[in-house]
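Exam prep: given the inputs below (a chain plus adenosine-5'-triphosphate), describe the expected output before reading on.
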Amino acid sequence: MEVSERFLQTALDGIRDCINIVDKDFKIIFMNEAASQRAGKKRHLLLGNKCYTELWKESAPCENCVTGKVFETGKPQQTITWETGIDGKKLCIEKFSFPIADKESKVEYVVEIFRDITERKLLEDEQEQQRLELGKRIRELRHAYEELKSLQNQLLQAEKMASIGLLASSLAHELDTPLATISGYCELLSEDIHNEKLPERIKTISDQVAKCQKTIRNLLDFSRKSNCERKLCNIQHLISNTLSLVEHRLIIHKIKLHKTFDDLVPPLLADGNQIQQVILNLINNAVDALPQGGDIFIETRMNKEMKSIEVVFEDNGIGISREDQKRVFTPFFTTKEPGKGTGLGLSICNNIISTHNGKIALESRAGSGAKFVISLPL
Ligand SMILES: Nc1ncnc2c1ncn2[C@@H]1O[C@H](COP(=O)(O)OP(=O)(O)OP(=O)(O)O)[C@@H](O)[C@H]1O
Ligand SMILES: [Mg+2]
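Solution:
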């Protein structure tokens, strides 16, 4: 072997890719160490033999052989194919063949370089599979989210209807008195139509009618299905409107209401209907906690530091045990008799306040009872 040939052989032997030079009859003229290792024989036993027999265990030129194409076209060729290795294992082989031409530019030999890219290919395939899987998961998640959102809406509406049921009885009381007054005064009116007290009585009638209308309008506003419409609302008005729906329950249960409203609290961008639902549930819970009567305290205040509005609901009722304090916001947690509470009230409140980027917390109260603090960002 000449020096230059020895250098070349040593250099090519150092390359991990298989390098193989064949003539027109696919006879191996040269091969590096990697290629002979692949064939599983010493180099001197391979030279002069057919490449398809030694490297690919075929009896004729391989079906997808690019070397044949190089002889035909004189142009370099490249492919990636799955092959069966000498140990029977499937291998992904990247092949690159290019010509060595004679003086008349006719292809005399072809250099074949091939490399095992099975691992890379498997990794790519796996990544592709993972990508597809991820896409599928994301689609499923999105679908589940939509479903959840629609369920949440349904739940909100269901909870609202449940509180309306509760309201209906107090509404009947609420409307009973003004309507009785109206009919009484109508009777009086028809008896002595010339009486000078007439204007005063007519005013009483219209006042009472206005009261009925206000109560009914509040109830209608509240029961209407809403799809989270945010408007600037005055929190104090929302509380007062809600209170007008439960006033009668408070009287029946001998509960005194104490309001401390900070008139400087600015308007809030919120879904008034949903906020009313929160207020209503907190008041109903407080009423339920005061079977022997007592006090409910409602306070509105600014938290300048947090740039938020705080609404505090306190009562001096039966209170919540340390154990239950951890669970009150959990859906379906209730300590009320079957049929009395669904246990959804506070979890829905929590949900509504969260969608308003606010917080609702149960805080400890000096003395007996419970204290809920809502904070809503401005
Ligand atoms: N002010 C309160 N005082 C004492 N316990 C309370 C108070 N507010 C809530 N709780 C406790 O938290 C539980 C959960 O309240 P939540 O409003 O979620 O459901 P509920 O009132 O039981 O049922 P629903 O609101 O569906 O009628 C109540 O059952 C009660 O034990
Ligand atoms: Mg409740």
